[in-house]
Amino acid sequence: MFKGLYRSRMSFDDVGTSFDTLLSVADDWSALRGNTSALVELYDLIYYYASIVYKKTKMKAWLKANRHLSVLDKMKASDLAFSLLVFENYYPKWVAEIKVAREQEGMKHDDHQGADTRVTDKEAAEDLSSKKKRIARMKLRYTKDPFAKKKYLESGWTPEGLKRYEELQKLFAGLLRNKVAWQACKDGWDSYIEGKRRDDVIVCWVPKYHSQDLDGTSDDENDSDEEEGFDFVLEGSEGGGKGELS
Question: What is the DSSP letter of 185?
Fold first, then answer.
C-alpha cells in the first residue's frame, strides 16, 4: 500500500482527500455512473490498495483461472472497507515516510555528484534517523500505540476504528447490491487498466490474458513487483472478504 502512494507522486496536500469524491456519492451509488472522478477514485482504491489485501501473485493466479472475470469480480465489501480504513489510518505516516525516502534519494544523488559534503551528510543522516524514530511513534487515527503493552489477543484497532470499518462496510455493501451501478464500474475497469498500461512509468500489474495464448502465459506474468498482503483480522464485524475485521 505504501508503494502505491509513493509511486503516485501526487501532491502531499491532496493525499488526505484521495477518496472524498467517491464517498460523496455513497448515499446514492447510482450517481457513480456519471461521476468520472468518483469512478477513478474507486478504481484507484482497488488497483493500489484493495488488491493488496489478497497479494498480487494470488490475484494474478485467480485472474488466470477466471479469464472471463476481472479484479472487480473478486472484490467484496469487506475488502473495500478494510482498504479504505487502512488508508485513512496510515496515510499521514506513509506521507512522512515518503518525505524521508525522498530526502534519502536526494542525498544519494548528491553523493553521485562527487561533492565533498561529508559533514553535511552526517548531519542530514542524523536528522533522517531522528525523523524515522518520530514516525515510528506517530499517533494514528484508528490504531493504538504500537509500543504500548496490550492484553492477550487485544485488537490493535481502537473502538472508533472498528466503528469506522462497520460504516464503510455498509456503504460498500450498498454499492455491490446496486447491480446497475456495480456493472457500470466493471464496464469502465478495462478502460482504466488500459490507461495504466499506456501512462504508468511502472508496469501495470494487472495481467492481460488472451484466449489464443497457447502456453497459458502472458507478457505480464513475469512482473516481480510484489506487495506484502494485509492479513489483519479484527474483532466485531461481518463479511466474507480477505480484509474483513472479524
Answer: H
124-128: long-range contacts at Cβ-Cβ below 8 A with a sequence spacing of 24 or more?
128/100, 128/103, 128/104
Neighbouring residues of 96: CB distance < 8 A, sequence distance ≥ 6: 131, 134, 135, 138
Phi/psi at 54 (5° precision): -95, -10
| pTM for the full predicted model | 0.77
Q: pLDDT of 159-176, one tens digit each?
A: 999 999 999 999 999 999
**Distance, C-alpha 240 to centroid of its chain:** 19
How far is 84 from 45, CA to CA, in rounded Å? 7
Helix (H, G, I), strand (E, B) or coil at 93: helix
> Under 8 Å CB-to-CB from 207, ≥6 apart: which residues?
60, 63, 64, 218, 220, 221
Q: How confident is the model at residue 13 (pLDDT cuts 50, 70, 90)?
A: low
Residue showing cell 561529508: 118
Residue pLDDT, tens place only, 84-114: 999 999 998 988 888 888 777 766 655 555 5
State the angle between helix axes of 77-112 and 118-136 in degrees (0 to 180), rounded to the nearest 10.
170
Cell of 125: 543522516
